[in-house]
Each structure stands twice: as C-alpha cells, then as structure tokens.
Amino acid sequence: MLKSFSDTIDGPLRCLKQGKLLLAISGGLDSVVLAWLCHELKLNFALAHCNFNLRDEESNTDEDFVINLAEDLDVEVFIQNFDTLSYAQSNGRSIQMAARELRYDWLKELAGQLEFDYILTAHHADDNLETFLINFTRGTGLNGLTGIPTINDNIVRPLLSFPRAQIQEYARDHNIDWREDSSNATRKYLRNKFRHDIVPILKEINPNLLDSFQNTLEHLKDTADIVEESLNAVAKRAIVNIDDHGVTYKISEFKKVNNPKAYLFEMFKNFGFTEWNDVVDLLDAESGKYVKSNSHRLIKHRAHLILTDLQTYTNEPIIINESDASIETPLGILKLETAKSYLQADLHTIYVDKHRLKFPLMLRPWQEGDIFQPLGMTGKKKVSKYLKDEKTSLVEKENTWVLTSDNEIIWIVGKRADERFKITSKTKDILKITLKG
Could you give all domains of the chain from N- to C-terminal order, each with its CATH number? Predict the structure, then answer.
C-alpha cells in the first residue's frame, strides 16, 4: 500500500509534496493509517482532532490517543472541543450534520490562520461507495452520483482510491494501533446500515464491487463533464443581461433544446425552486407570470425569463430637505446641487427649476393612480401606463421610485422627468439632481 500511496503523491496529488498539510484525525483506523503513510513519505503535516464530547469518556480517550500519536510521529497537534449537542439543537441539525459542520468550519479556520496549504481527510473507496448509495436512495441528480471529489478547493482525500480492507491490512502488517468508535457499530445511522447490511450483500453478488464502482464513477464523471459543457453553452447563449435587478435569459434558447426542463432544472436548481413543471410552463406563459422559491423568483417578461432575489426593500418614503446635499436611498445616493448652467439630462441626472420646488421633497415607490406630465409632452399620463408603454418588466416596476414636490412628480427616477419642472428662459436657479448607484 505504501508504494501505491507514494505513486499517488508523486502523480495526481504531487501538490502535497511541497505543501504544508493539516491532517484531520479522529483516532480511527483510516486517519491513523493516513498519518503514518504521510510520516513514511516525510510530508510536512500536523494533526487536527475534534472532540465532539458525544461519547463521554470514550471521546476523551480518543483525544489522549491522538496526542500520544502526535508525539510518536513528532508532529504538531491541534485539539478543539465542541458542545455538539447544544450546537445541533440551536441550529436545527442532526448530530451527524452538526459534527460535520463544526469539524469543517474549524479545520478551514485553522488552516487559514496558520497558513496550511491543504486539509487532508481519510475518506476511502468504501466511504465513496456508501455516499453514492445514500445519494441514490434519497434521490439525486447526476452530480450526486459522481462520488466524493478527491480534491475540493483545499480539501484533499489521498486515500479515496484505497479500499477499507487494504487500509486495515496495512495497519495490521505494521502493528499500527487505532481507536474503535463504538457508534460505528450501531444501525441508528443510515451510513452504518449500508456499511453493515447492504454493502456486504452487494460484495457477495460481485466480489469486485469496488473496482466496478470505480469504473462506473469514471463514466459518470465523464458524462457530467459533457453535461456541464452543454449547459454552459446554452447559458452563454441565453444570458443577455446581468444587473442589480437580476439575470435575464432569452426564452428562445431554452426552446431550441430537446429537453428544456432538464436545462431549466440544471440552471436554476440552486435557487430553491421545487415546482419544475411550473417553471417549464413559464416559457409559454403570459408576461408577468412568475414562479417563486423561498429565496428567488423566476419571472416571465415578454421573450425573457428574469431571475431575481427575494430581497426585502424598504418602501418607506424618504424626506429630502433643502439643506440635504446627498442622501442614501434604496436606489443609490441621490445628490442635489446648485448648477450655474445645465447640460443634456440623462437617465441618472435631471436639471429642474428650483423655484418650482416646494421643500421638503419626497422620494417614494410609485403607486397605482400616480400621474405625471412626461418631459416634452403637453398632456398628463398615468405612471402605470407609461411603464407599460415602456415595456417595463415586473422586477423593474417593483424597483421604480418617484421624486415628488407637494405631491407632484418631479422625476420617475432613472426613467423620465416631468415637464412642469423643466428649465425655461425664466429660470433663475437651477438644481441638478443626480442618482449614483
């Protein structure tokens, strides 16, 4: 096994040879063997042990074992104690999930503080098979069936290609002691049910199960790469705009593919949507329809879909006094300054006759029934009609505010100024109003 491990370090994981390594160790068989293998290859590593305080004196004995092992290996060791039960209860986590979160959060924090290049964990081939079966049983997509990654950011799993039996054989041949975790024997945890009941039957059916599984994983990873490449190509063609309101996609690009639902699922699965038939129906829905998750909305707007966050914006009116030079708003910074002359206005800047204003001004979201006189026009128009004529999306409408003086609209901010406040030949004082995002 040492030769195979050395080949792994010299080959696909050669990044570990010159790195400063933090080895996560429980005291169990797998992590102890990994520590001895790293020691044999004279890698630069330290040990990191989590005491989750879940097994009374047994947890403390594990901690003592790891401290003694560090002395035998002549390496530094870091110990962290956790109140795992309290964390699980206060965060609504299972014990296993709580321990996992605490472990990885601490390892990443420790590695960052002490400038370790990589975190090593002792996951092996049997762990990978169990994870595959658990994901398969619970239901998952293609990525959930590609197994545990050997390298994930700075987390590396050097034993992932080695079976548990080979690791155990190496330990016995080299008289390596380890700690047995009594919780590994219970069927209370789903992983243990697979480990003790399901996997042995599968190995009885196919004695070369792990080899077959590794081959299957390679095929699945290759397929996942092809899917990712195709998905990225469609996304590149579909995305037409990214701004503060969200991401805009061309519907026509989804309709060109053979299975739009599959592409929609892969593209939007990380945004909390669950009603995928409703998402597909948006492609042919009328403008303004949307599907909502706990965190996002996907909105149909004419020939596009718009993905936007469910952000909570303040709808409270903002009072602007004559003495205010600038004021922070949900839209950005609104600046007011006296100007000696005026240039051509744009979407973010207007020039108004200051003597027409009655302070304080008010900035507020537009409302149904709002009326203004668009700059350059003689008649008045409902703001709702103006937004419709401008083909404004639902997202934009929700983020449209108006600046008013004595209940008269001065500016549909970022869109259109009002005729009644424009600069004329009789204007004596010019006020420049600018929105900076």
Answer: 2-205 (3.40.50.620), 220-309 (3.30.465.60), 318-436 (3.50.40.10)
